[in-house]
Specification:
2 domains; TIM Barrel; alpha/beta; 20% strand; 16 strands; 8-stranded parallel β-sheet; 28% helix; disordered C terminus; binds 2-acetamido-2-deoxy-beta-D-glucopyranose; globular; Immunoglobulin-like; 13 helices
């Protein structure tokens, strides 16, 4: 058994190494054999790695923090430095949350006489370069924001037709990440407005993460893979249960297009902002991780509660998001009133699966995941590790697994088959 799993590990690692060096490779997973129609439909990866941008970034979904969800326009260099410090002192940075992203409102509302964007002198008197230096000195990375239109959504200068100069300026400041929004776009198609910034960023010679924020309007999953490292699939999230669940469902439709190099982005995390309860935030975080979503914290990290920190720093859930196989998990089964008792699952490296039992009903419920629904042979014996209890809850589960789940809550597991199946060697 031990010897056998060693062979599997070596094979999976080889496959992974092949997939990070080549531009487009289908994931090879014993449960994703092409000839197995049911499995390949269930976890359709036919568009996996489809024309991903090749700038070396986003081998796994990006992680960090952004100003927008909590602070909106009420930002300044102090709050960003204090947040960088807090990411370190809370331990979140060492778990992978390394991008410190300034969203809209960092720029003055007009360009200078040379046509350059300038940081708002009232709120960023030391400039963005000084902030980047500070963030870098902490081992973190700095992100800025602009817009593929003539203005940003908060009516600061946009970068449409000014891509080259703006990209050069940001690169000269040491910027590592760009979120590129979609306001005031003159009605021009996004397929025309987003590539020039990709090329401008590339021409700077600085490696800059390119996050498209086109709101999912023109189905960016279908074309953005060759343009950016992630693309928003939906309208903005807000701090409500209805918004979060609606967005999860939309993002789920595009699962087959995610892969190393380019990810579907269901928008930043609201965990800790107060509009949802502990169970709801736990589900938000678990499902985002299962969907290989960017994990961009959106709360005030300087004033984080123990419960919020417990959710955001769950290493085992983060590891699902960052799994090197990079296949987006998805909803595989729903039952109960309006299908509110849901099973979400996805394949992981080393022949494992991740699974979330998500109770979207308003009452506690027992949710059952039948092996056939998640793509396992009924006779397979599985070891179940509970990622919120941090323990193996069953060494030998066959056929199906059931758990009681709180109203609007979830449970999350890693399933490790105890013997190989589907002729994996
Ligand atoms: C900076 O922004 C924070 C968060 O909005 C605010 O609490 C603080 O007063 C601001 N500081 C200055 C100097 O404007
Ligand atoms: C620019 O693009 C080329 C081709 O896709 C890529 O190999 C290179 O790493 C990119 N450079 C930067 C700085 O992003
Ligand atoms: C929050 O999102 C929901 C669902 O998308 C939407 O109906 C609602 O209007 C939004 N609320 C706010 C305050 O934007
Ligand atoms: C810190 O968070 C608590 C709620 O968790 C809130 O009541 C308090 O106002 C916050 N403090 C600051 C300085 O934002
Ligand atoms: C699982 O589903 C299959 C097919 O729908 C069904 O035949 C079987 O009885 C189910 N098994 C369990 C343990 O619920």
């Amino acid at each position: 058994m031990a010897k056998w799993s060693g062979i599997v590990a070596v094979v999976s690692l080889t496959v992974f190494l092949m997939s990070v060096t080549a531009a487009t490779v289908l994931p090879i997973h014993p449960y994703l054999k092409v000839e197995d129609t049911f499995i390949s439909q269930l976890y359709d990866t036919s568009n996996y790695g489809f024309l991903q941008i090749d700038n070396g970034l986003a081998r796994t979904p990006q992680m960090g923090w952004s100003t927008w969800n909590f602070f909106a326009c009420n930002i300044n260099e102090t709050v960003i430095k204090e947040t960088a410090d807090a990411l370190i002192s809370t331990g979140l940075a060492s778990l992978g949350y390394t991008y410190v992203n300034i969203d809209d409102c960092w720029s003055r509302s007009t360009r200078n006489l040379k046509g350059e964007m300038i940081p708002d002198p009232k709120t960023f008197p030391s400039g963005i370069k000084a902030l980047a230096d500070y963030v870098h000195s902490k081992g973190l990375k700095l992100g800025v924001y602009s817009d593929a239109g003539i203005f940003t959504c908060q009516v600061r200068p946009g970068s449409l037709f000014q891509e080259k100069n703006d990209a050069e300026l940001w690169a000269s400041w040491g910027v590592d990440y760009l979120k590129y929004d979609n306001c005031y776009n003159l009605g021009l198609p996004p397929q025309k407005r987003y590539p020039p910034m990709r090329d401008a960023l590339n021409d700077t010679g600085r490696t800059i993460f390119y996050a498209l924020c086109e709101w999912g309007i023109d189905d960016p999953a279908k074309w953005a893979g060759k343009i950016g490292n992630s693309w928003r699939t939906t309208d903005d999230i807000n701090d409500t249960w209805i918004s979060m669940t609606t967005i999860a469902d939309i993002n789920n439709k595009w699962a087959s297009y995610a892969g190393p190099g380019g990810w579907n982005d269901p928008d930043m995390l609201e965990v800790g902002n107060g509009g949802m309860n502990y169970h709801e935030y736990k589900g938000h975080f678990s499902v985002w991780a299962l969907m290989k979503a960017p994990l961009i914290i959106g709360c005030d990290v300087r004033n984080i509660t123990a419960d919020t920190l417990k959710i955001l720093s769950n290493k085992e859930v983060i590891a699902v998001d960052q799994d090197p196989l990079g296949v987006q998990g998805r909803r595989v089964y729903a039952s109960g009133p309006d299908g509110c008792q849901q099973v979400w699952a996805g394949p992981l490296s080393r022949n494992r699966f991740a699974m979330v039992l998500w109770n979207r009903c308003s009452k506690a419920a027992t949710i059952t995941a039948n092996w056939s629904a998640i793509g396992l042979e009924p006779s397979i014996s599985v070891s179940m590790r509970d990622l919120w209890k941090h323990e193996v809850v069953s060494e030998n589960t066959v056929g199906s697994f059931s758990a009681r789940v709180n109203a609007h809550g979830c449970e999350m597991y890693i399933l490790t088959p105890r013997r190989a199946t589907r002729s994996s060697i």
